[in-house]
Design goal:
The complex is a heterodimer of chains A (559) and B (252). In chain A, 75% of the residues lie in helices and 1% in strands. Chain A has 559 residues and is an all-alpha fold. Classes of the chains: A mainly alpha (559), B mainly alpha (252).
Chain lengths: 559, 252
Amino acid sequence: MVALVSPVFLLPLLAALLTQLAAPRLPRSSVRISITGAVVTFAVASVLLGLALTGQAPGEIRFGHDWGMLLVDPLASLMAFVVSGISLIVHVYSRRYMAEERGYARFFTLLDLMTAALLLMVTAGDLVTLLIAWHLIGVLLYFLLGHDSTSHTANRYAAWTLLTYRFGDLPLLLAAALLYQAFGTWSLHGIFEQLMAAPDTRTLFDLPLAEAVAGLIALSAFARSAQFLLHTWLPYSMSGPTPVSALMHAGIVNAGGFLINRFAPLFVGTDDVLHWIFIVGLVTAVIGSVLMLAQNDIKKALGYSTMGQMGFMIMECGVGAFSLAVYHLIAHGLFKGTLFLGAGGVISEARNDDGVPKDDLYTFVVERRPARRRQPWLLMAAITLVVPVVILVLAHWLVANDFFQKQGAVVLLFFGWVTGAQLIFSTYRMRTENIWRLMGLILFSFTIVVIGYTLISHAFDVFLYPDPVFRSSIYAAAGIDIFWFDTLVILMTLVVVLGWLVTYYAERNGRRRKGAMSSLWRSFYTLVAREFFVINLYARLSAFLLAVATRLNVLLRWS
Amino acid sequence: MTFPAYLVAAVFLPLFPASMLFNRVFAMLGNTWLRMSLLLVWPQLGLLALAASGETPPDWLVYWAVLTACLYAFRALALRDLGLWTAHMATSAWALLWAVAMFSGDTTALALQAAAFSVPFVLLAWLASRIEAACGAAYAGTCGGLAQTLPRLSSMLVLTLLAAIGTPLFPAFFSLLATVTRALPVVPGIALLILLAWLLWAWAGARMTHGMVVGQASTEAGPDLGIAAALTPGILLVGLAVAGVTSLGYLV
């Protein structure tokens, strides 16, 4: 199995080289080399995953003395499969999509180099290799986003992305330096082994090493996965080619979740870092979703949708559901990649026929027509609150009897309940001849989704972290005092239910708002529509720094 | 002997305000080959002076050096002339050699690292002269859109800029990684300032790339680099990357 890991990383590199060399003579046909490389890479990655699924032992291959190691373990093989699969789809899609663009062969060369860098990142067995891959992804993304060298806008936001990524590279570099100083090796395996043996190792300023390094790694993951305040590059980098947007949203932006999983043995030894990760993820998920709703630009809305999803993924890490975050990043990658790659076709079709069915769902969502006849509210409220809980509990009980012992699982159940209840809550007001039939169908779909999600995430858990003790210790590291946990869950439940009640009465009274409330709502909407002024703040700061630099140059006479 | 040696070193491994001398001399030189030679030789003289001092530079001096590096990297953000930009970035990079010297007693390794820092700037000086020949001035914004008109030249420019701002696999990346790793537990402030300078380099590099390469094609641009002319810096950059990859084992 170990022998296959080098080709996985080297094949796209070779394809990039050959494509570039063939480009001057065969500007169009040279991309076939690139696509063939992507096919073979995907085939090798599939074999690698197949071998990992059959229970082949993890291993590593070394090119240097203490660095230049490639690792093959369940996480690496799964991520290599996902990355090479998405890359192959993007390659095939780009063959025709980019055919009229300048720098056609260059685009494929960059795509191959990006694939190689991503595969190097997921298979890196030491800190230096990981750092190199982590840095190179930022640089290559800059060139891919700025592929249209005539577009100032695309290149401006590509540069902003590069700068945010470089900002995120630095904490990872600091973490690597601290780990090397503590254990004298770059090898991830060696570091984790020594850390397990001496979990109380101290570092700079007598801080606990695990805590300090985990904090730095989390910061790096935040920048890569567009967490709040480090998110501005994501919605604004849509000026790049559509295949790049697909690759970015399906593969690159998820790297934060991968990084936290890669350093799972480190996070197990921490006390508070996972709680901070949870809070940052939660804030990002909420703000990303709110901003998405307020956008009138579809591309920006998609960008903020990804931000919200990334927040949710990071939040999953924060509650100790590491393997669920990997499942989430794959699922999100697939659906967001599909959205981007299908966007062109959808727009083209919509020009001929909007394709919007004039059915109940349409009239309810678009025309906001409430139902003519309503069911007794008490019955509907009971169904709304109870049914999702029952489905979720049963689904989880299927895979693990003791899931109520894990706070992370309870938090995720809570989110599942809110989502399910929200769905039924909306259904209740829909105009339909047979509300029970519709609700039955929705509940059936919800059950399928929940059971599928639960079973698959359980399978991921067992595959990625086969040791049950280690799995429990991740959840334990994410846990908080039971009193505070229960208090928070009850408080959140009350807030959500109160929100539903407010919405219900607002709907019933015809959305009448008066005086101060109306003005407050308008101010809030302005704040959201202007994206909390974060972009403006960064633009002002950047302009200020450039003005200071210019003043200094004048003062010092450019010498 | 220590003080005079440090004084000389402060000029050649530029510490602000002595650093202004190098930038003045560089700006005065009109000949490209003289500029390139100056970029190659200047830090080596500084290292000789530093070796003559016979001591490891004290903390306060290294702090001064990394602050100088940050200052010049910051000032490079607002520069649009590629020649001036090269001189400022070289000043910033060489100032960091004080921090490298603090943790490396091997003078040969230090000289090689200084040379590895300088080579991208030597190439930039040469590329600036070629852009001046083609467009009349190597000025970001004025002769933008080079990717359209001079694709080979702009490719070389972008790759050289990447080498100059310490991108992996170029030697500056490994050199700074090794220095930060060694400095962090002893003088964390220096390690953090090195990272700040590195961040500013990336910003400055992105701004220069944007100003030079991006935009609509200019109709008045001269001829592009020939294959042979593009191959020389290309081979040099590949050599630098190979040197970078093999250097880490010796640096840490």
